[in-house]
Write a structure and sequence with these properties.
Layout lengths: L11 E4 L7 H7 L4 E6 L1 H5 L2 H11 L3 E5 L8 H14 L3 E6 L1 H16 L8 E2 L9 E5 L11 E6 L4 E6 L7 E4 L9 H20 L8 H20 L4 H21 L3 H13 L3 H16 L4 H11 L8 H19 L12 H17 L12 H11 L1
Parallel strand pairs: 1-9, 2-3, 2-4, 4-6, 5-8, 6-9
Antiparallel strand pairs: 7-8
Helix pairs in contact: 1-3, 4-5, 6-7, 6-8, 6-10, 7-8, 9-10, 9-13, 10-12, 10-14, 11-12, 13-14
Bound molecules: nicotinamide-adenine-dinucleotide (NAD) and fe (ii) ion.
Nicotinamide-adenine-dinucleotide binds next to helix 5, strand 7, helix 6 and helix 10.
Length: 388
């Protein structure tokens, strides 16, 4: 007999156009009386935050709004959110936005319940108590944060992105409403879509992948192969937006249970130091890291290639893996993803001065230990240079 395996998911997941309109009934069912609405400022301006607040009010809840969420949320903004939550005496948190708003809301809820210092929770399984219930409404497709036991918070003093992993971070309800992603501009669609694909590939080839995480990973890869470029080409393609919203959810279900790997390990330091959007920094690394990792899981990478539709039964595992790397390079080219060195945020001198620290931070995050080939610090430095 093999060892028992576990799958952790949000207890309630609702998917489909209009799902976000159910927020009031779920808030009431959870017994909420005072909600903290953690919202990306974009959705304050476009009116969605107001409509969500109205639905919560109509369900009988008082609503306090915190809209101080920035991309790659920081410990500073999380603390401001906790202060708003405490002042409102909120007993329920509702997050509306991309991975940044959802991650901030997760951390606000658990920090409110467990107290400072925030950075003591970095790493795995370090949160003693659950926070207030969280209803997550994603607007990018996306990080899959609505389904994961992960939050990523920037440590402003250390200039690192802290990966915090604990079952108390899993949202109580995920309301996945594909319509909300239709307003994403093309670049954002591309970047978050490659993030989604990276979650699924890294989860499928992970050293701790299981038969419970694999189906989510493969579904995600299949959906990305069919819908990412369609959504990127035609923002109003509703079928493609729905496909990518489901892909993002499945990618989150996969990696939350099987981990991400070396791409994410290396991507977070780029985000922390240079403020490159998360999906974009994954995209620039994905081909090189895949090439590096192929030999560690040739059979699994071949399944990825076949599921993505870039290799067929006529290709053996090695050929399928090579075709996968070429396809990922080609995808970046078509989506306009530049090389690391061509990103406007990345200054060459600063890169040279920080690449050793970035490689060490990548290793310290723990994600590279899940990769099919576990790299040394020197190999990570070489991979950063290869992506340059
Ligand atoms: N917790 C997890 O499981 C997990 C997984 C992957 C990534 N992350 C983290 O999530 C963050 C990235 O999240 P993201 O990629 O979803 O982007 P984001 O939430 O940072 O948003 C990026 C930008 O897009 C805008 N935006 C969001 N939705 C939009 C929409 N529908 N239309 C127009 N504009 C919109 C936002 O206002 C923001 O300016 C990073 O900090 C990353 O580390 C977390
Ligand atoms: Fe990611």
């Amino acid at each position: 007999m093999s060892d028992p395996i576990t799958l952790l998911l949000p207890p309630t997941i609702v998917v489909g156009d209009g799902a976000s309109a159910q927020v009031g009934e779920h808030a009431r069912r959870l017994g909420g009386r005072r909600a903290l609405l953690v919202v990306d400022p974009f959705f304050v301006a476009n009116g969605l935050a107001g409509r969500i607040a109205e639905r919560l009010a109509a369900a009988g809840l008082d609503v306090a709004t915190f809209d101080g969420v920035e991309p790659d949320p920081t410990d500073v903004s999380v603390r401001a959110g906790v202060a708003t939550m405490a002042a409102a005496d909120a007993d329920l948190v509702v997050a509306v936005g991309g991975g940044s708003a959802i991650d901030a809301a997760k951390m606000i809820a658990v920090l409110h319940a467990n107290g400072e210092p925030l950075d003591q929770y970095q790493g795995y399984h370090r949160i003693p108590r659950s926070g207030a219930p969280l209803i997550a409404i994603p607007t990018t497709a996306g990080t899959g944060s609505e389904a994961t036991q992960v939050t990523v918070i920037t440590n402003t003093a250390a200039q690192t992105k802290m990966m915090i992993f604990d079952r108390h971070l899993i949202p109580t309800v995920a309301l996945v409403d594909p319509e909300l992603s239709a307003s994403m501009p093309a670049d954002l669609t591309a970047h978050v879509g490659v993030d989604t694909l990276t979650h699924a590939i890294e989860a499928y080839v992970s050293r701790i992948a299981t038969p419970l995480s694999d189906p989510f990973a493969l579904s995600c890869i299949d959906l990305v192969g069919r819908y990412l470029e369609r959504a990127w080409n035609a923002p109003d393609d509703r079928e493609a937006r729905s496909g990518m919203a489901l892909a993002a959810l499945h990618g989150g279900c996969a990696f939350s249970n099987a981990s991400v790997g070396l791409v994410h390990g290396m991507s977070r330091p780029i985000g922390a130091v240079f403020h490159v959007p998360h999906g974009l920094s994954n995209a620039v690394l994905l081909p090189a890291v895949t090439r590096f990792s192929l030999d560690g899981a040739a059979d699994r990478y071949a399944v990825v290639a076949r599921t993505l539709g870039v290799a067929g039964p006529e290709h053996d595992d090695r050929a399928a893996g090579d075709r996968l790397v070429a396809a990922l390079d080609g995808l970046n080219e078509r989506l306009g993803v530049p090389r690391l060195g061509a990103l406007p945020q990345v200054d060459e001198a600063r890169f040279a001065a920080t690449v050793d620290k970035m490689a060490q931070d990548a290793l310290d995050s723990g994600s590279p230990a899940r990769n099919p080939v576990v790299p040394t610090q020197a190999q990570i430095v070489a991979l950063y240079r290869e992506a340059w």
